[in-house]
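thread: overnight batch results

M.L. [08:02]
morning all. the overnight job finished for the chain we discussed friday. pasting input first so we're all looking at the same thing
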Amino acid sequence: MKTHILRSALVLAGLGLVTGCASGEQGKTTCVVAHGSFAVRYKLAANPNNCAPADQMYSEAIGAAKITDADGKATVALNPENLFWGDPNYENKLVTGTFRSNEPDAEDTCYAEGFNVQSAGPTTGNRLDADWPFNPPGVGYTGGNMNRDLTYEFKQVQFLVNAGNPGSQMKGDVDITVNGCKASYQFVGVAPAHSCYYSDPANLPVRDSEGNQHGGKELEDYPTITADANGVETWVPDPSKCDPNPRPDLGRSTGSGLNPDLDVACNEYSGYCVLAGDAIDFQRISH
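M.L. [08:03]
and the structure it wrote out:
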């Protein structure tokens, strides 16, 4: 999980992303995007093709960045984690769009649109990520099957940009096709993406009810895997890992890095700390 977040951040950093505070010249607020990855949860908006639960999307991390070219034109780049699971050339799987304006509107919202369509999976000529040491679930790759064809069609993405929320929350609309079955989703995300799946206090491997060990050499934590009522595989969540404060009682010298004023929860499908609740909306912080 952590490996792929790092990859996403490095890919975006290599494009010359512009991040930082939300104030520009002469005190004006400019549209910015928080550095790194957002933990996103999806809400099914329309399922006209009756996509099965295993062919739906629930939660994942999405790398995001604002890129400014030599002419000052701002582009928004998105790097959904699931797009590069099945592609060794993950740097080619960016989704890019443009801001409507360089400044937030009256609701402190920056709109991005005009995104390209991006696909990955067996029928696009890609192969599985051979260096990843275990098969999902995890990182939002629901159904426990990496061999999936995926297509993302982002319709619009919004970022909340003000003094209390410097581009660290986003929401939007996207059509996602999984194995040929297309559905529409709303989504909301928060940065930074922080993992919260369960591991024992000694950070030793955790086994499921059948005695199977899950995890690999690149993981610091070893998650327990279970399933929801529809048989879609999930992590066992550890909500304490979403605490923004250090937890020396649990052997954690640092917190999640999330704003303590936000209400977050550990998502069982991705093992990330996401904005709590069912609503697809920003949590507005006044300060």
